[in-house]
Design brief:
Elements (H helix, E strand, L loop, with lengths): L3 H15 L5 H8 L4 H7 L6 H9 L3 H17 L10 H24 L1 H4 L5 H19 L8 H9 L12
Helix pairs in contact: 5-6
């Protein structure tokens, strides 16, 4: 649902970013950003920010959308931990806004591919491929109810691997 609060949040974000679009080059760089600002501004100081930025920027647009959606879902399904002194209502709103926007972008990618991808339809194919890989993953781990998002998220997050996430299909 597009609530007044979500509309205001999106409007304020666009208004803030528009201040940096003082030239055509800067405006283009802003419009092509795929989460770099979020990763750079919100990760802890000791996080390898540039490595994480690479996971969402060095891919085709539809792949990047799919990765952001999966990351958003995994974060959303984790138990909420709110740092002491942090505005709980702001945290809740940002968390919910992220989920709503992510779900909507995936809806557009799958149901309205011509609006979201330079090559209409490739996002749908990648989505189906990802679903097939997820089904195999859960089948190998004997997860029966693959539609239980909490169990699916926990199972994915419990995987320990020496392979960088960027190298995993």
């Amino acid at each position: 649902p597009m609530t007044k609060e979500l509309w205001a949040f999106m409007f304020n974000e666009l208004k803030y970013k528009s201040k940096f679009g003082d030239s055509p080059e800067n405006a283009k760089r802003i419009s092509l950003a795929r989460g770099q600002w979020t990763l750079r501004d919100n990760l802890p100081e000791d996080a390898d920010r540039e490595k994480l930025v690479g996971y969402v920027t060095n891919f085709d647009y539809d792949q990047s959308l799919l990765m952001w959606h999966i990351a958003t879902e995994l974060c959303y399904q984790q138990e909420e931990t709110i740092p002491e002194g942090y505005d709980k209502s702001k945290h809740y709103s940002n968390r919910e806004f992220s989920k709503i926007i992510s779900d909507y972008v995936m809806y557009l990618l799958i149901m309205q591919p011509g609006l979201m991808s330079e090559v209409a339809g490739i996002g749908k194919i990648r989505f189906r491929d990802t679903m097939a890989e997820a089904d195999k993953f859960f089948h190998r781990r004997h997860i029966e109810n693959v539609r239980d998002v909490k169990i699916a998220s926990k199972t994915i997050l419990d995987v320990s691997s020496d392979i960088d996430p960027i190298g995993v299909k």
